[in-house]
């Protein structure tokens, strides 16, 4: 008797290690957020996660794409504003030229990628690089859920904000805090504005305003429940979700890029040949 053929499908999951647990997020066939939390000591974690996903996707053979993210203090970034659009190959060559010119590190010791965005006048190229050994050391923390994609943490945080809010608001400042990280993020056409600092959100907001002379119309903030309580301005907008925030942003990797960026991506480590 012939067994029914199941089509193979890549299911993207976002993973983030916080304290001694792996937080895992994915979207089910109805595009509803699903999430689990596993102890880092869990045995057969990959098999247990696959079994859970099979319940959501019973008609297909599952192939996982595991997306994580790395803190920007471990990476190097540069934004270029160019007078005209570049092809994928031209973006690659531009990245290599800039990295060889500005970093005292051999190109074969780096993993790099870029985000490319057409502007009303010109073209923006965001270049991101990480030492190969740094990325490999980082991925050792995820040995039970091997990462195929290593994005930048601010990108994941912004995606989570956009997803929960269901909109992008111009001139908005996004503040994120957990017990390990504190970020202020603001999108701008020509230069992304990001500040990573220690302390609380009030201090972070004041530091951001001193560094960037930006017109801020709205402030959105997300804080994990284990952060120390603090009184925040009444006109700030709190963003809440039951799903683990950074893992949610990782799960949404590239979903907004398909709509807003003509070429390139934010990935640092996935097989680059797939993009050509």
Q: What report would you give on this structure?
A:
It is a single chain. The chain has 276 residues and is an alpha/beta fold. It is 25% helix and 33% strand. It is built from 7 helices and 14 strands. It has helices at 45-56, 88-102, 132-139, 153-165, 201-211, 245-251, 257-260; strands spanning 7-18, 21-27, 33-39, 60-70, 76-82, 110-118, 123-131, 149-152, 172-177, 182-186, 193-196, 218-223, 237-238, 263-264. Helix 4 crosses helix 6. The radius of gyration is 20 Å and the shape is globular. Residues 257-276 have low confidence and may be disordered.
Quick one: how many beta strands?
14
Tally of helical segments: 7
Approximately what portion of the residues adopt beta-strand conformation?
25-35%
Task: Give average pLDDT, whole number.
Answer: 86
> What is the approximate shape?
globular
- H/E element order: EEEHEEHEEHEHEEEHEEHHE
Radius of gyration: 20 Å
Largest sheet, strands/sense/barrel: 5 strands, mixed
- The end-to-end span amounts to 42 Å
- Low-pLDDT ranges: 257-276
Structural class: alpha/beta
In which range does the helix fraction lie?
A: 25-40%
Q: Tell me the strand order in the biggest sheet.
A: 3-2-1-4-8
């Amino acid at each position: 008797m012939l067994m029914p053929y199941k089509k193979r499908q890549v299911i993207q999951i976002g993973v983030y290690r916080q304290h001694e647990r792996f937080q895992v997020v994915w979207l089910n066939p109805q595009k509803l957020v699903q999430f689990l939390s596993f102890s880092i000591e869990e045995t057969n974690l990959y098999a247990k996660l696959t079994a859970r996903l099979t319940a959501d996707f019973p008609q297909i053979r599952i192939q996982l794409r595991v997306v994580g993210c790395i803190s920007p203090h471990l990476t190097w970034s540069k934004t270029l504003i160019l007078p005209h659009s570049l092809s994928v190959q031209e973006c690659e060559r531009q990245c290599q030229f800039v990295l060889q010119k500005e970093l005292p590190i051999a190109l074969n010791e780096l993993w790099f990628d870029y985000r490319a965005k057409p502007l009303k006048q010109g073209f923006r190229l965001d270049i991101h690089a990480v030492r190969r050994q740094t990325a490999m050391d980082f991925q050792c923390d995820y040995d039970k859920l091997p990462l195929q994609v290593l994005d930048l943490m601010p990108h994941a945080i912004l995606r989570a904000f956009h997803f929960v809010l269901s909109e992008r608001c111009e001139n908005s400042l996004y503040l994120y805090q957990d017990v390990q990280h504190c970020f202020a993020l603001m999108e701008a056409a020509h230069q992304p504005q990001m500040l990573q600092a220690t302390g609380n959100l009030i201090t972070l907001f004041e530091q951001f305003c001193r560094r960037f002379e930006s017109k801020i119309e709205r402030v959105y903030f997300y804080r994990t429940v284990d952060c120390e309580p603090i009184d925040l301005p009444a006109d700030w907008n709190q963003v809440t979700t039951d799903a683990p925030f950074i893992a949610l942003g990782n799960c949404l990797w590239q979903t907004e890029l398909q709509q807003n960026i003509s070429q390139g991506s934010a990935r640092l480590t996935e097989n680059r040949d797939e993009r050509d």
